[in-house]
Design brief:
alpha+beta, 6-stranded antiparallel beta sheet, 17 strands, 26% strand, binds adenosine-5'-triphosphate, binds magnesium ion
Length: 357
Amino acid sequence: QKLKVGIIFGGQSSEYEVSLMSCASVIKVMDKSKYEIMPIGINKHGNWKLFLGSIEKIENDTWQSEAIPVLLAPDPKYNCAIEINNGIEKRHYFDVAFPVLHGPRGEDGTVQSIFELMNVPYVSCGVASSAICMDKVFSKKILAQSNLPIVDYKVFYKNELKGKISDIISEIENSIGYPCFVKPANLGSSVGISKVSKRDELSDALFAAAKYDTKILVEKSVDAREIECAVLGNSDPKASLPGEILPSRDFYDYSAKYLDGDKSKLLLPAPLSSDLTTQVQELAIKAFKALDCSGMARVDFLMDKKTEKIYINELNTIPGFTKISMYPKMWETSGLSYKKLIDELICLALERHREKN
Ligand code: ATP
Ligand code: MG
Ligand code: MG
Ligand code: MG
């Protein structure tokens, strides 16, 4: 009997397109002799649809015309996607859910909470951990309280921008200075993020971030090497060999991630001394534990080019899963194939569920 896996893709965040790419590559690599795959898409309006067509249609975003509207119900009786056709209910049961969703309303605990209420095992972190990792301000507070290294930051709210913007600008200049990074607190793929090098650019950057979130973060910029580390496990998590990114642009923005072809370079493993490699791996595991992660997370670091001081930038609980994405690549470099990685993630989801029930 094959294990039925509900792969959830798309979603309402600005990372919808990235999710389609991640999902297509996850489905391609999954062992079809072990798993019966049930892809369920969420369109940009938030409607859930079962899609049993070709992977290409997910990749080029033409999946919706063939998809069947379904509902998920927050009740353990309904561990299935429910199709209602002319008043007749058809249930599509699944054993485990794998949300391949990035950003708010997908990676942030909201979708995870549906699986909790359905009492269905699901891949990656639980509700609170997902929510806190998505929120860069909450995560920084917890990392700081755990004595883990983070860069200096300030928080502002969208409604404060309606007031005297010059007050906010001087507050940032007096505490953070230039260059600085302005980010929406909850998002990913660098959407809404700007690097600001002078006063003229600051208010545009604040308003740009405020398009995506009511909470805005301003961070000190570090002239850094960008190091990432993949963590996998539940109570005894393991860290992969770190990887390094050489962005094709001034920083690793949306274009450098997805639009510049292969102009951004990925170094696997990262060319670090064994001492620095160990430091990164230890910090990755400490951050994973501090934020109560389970299943997986990709921990992103900034390593000061001069001092080699390592800062934890952020954690991603559903990192990119395209065939060139860092999370699966770092595991491949560490000796765990993409296919085995998916098996392991599903095992970890089942294990966590067994322990809770
Ligand atoms: P993703 O989830 O896709 O990794 P994100 O949208 O959550 O990205 P961050 O990882 O916080 O955003 O930042 C995106 C990029 O911006 C980083 O990879 C790095 O290139 C740059 N960056 C962010 N913060 C800083 C900083 N404080 N100093 C220097 N560079 C930074
Ligand atoms: Mg992120
Ligand atoms: Mg992300
Ligand atoms: Mg990042």
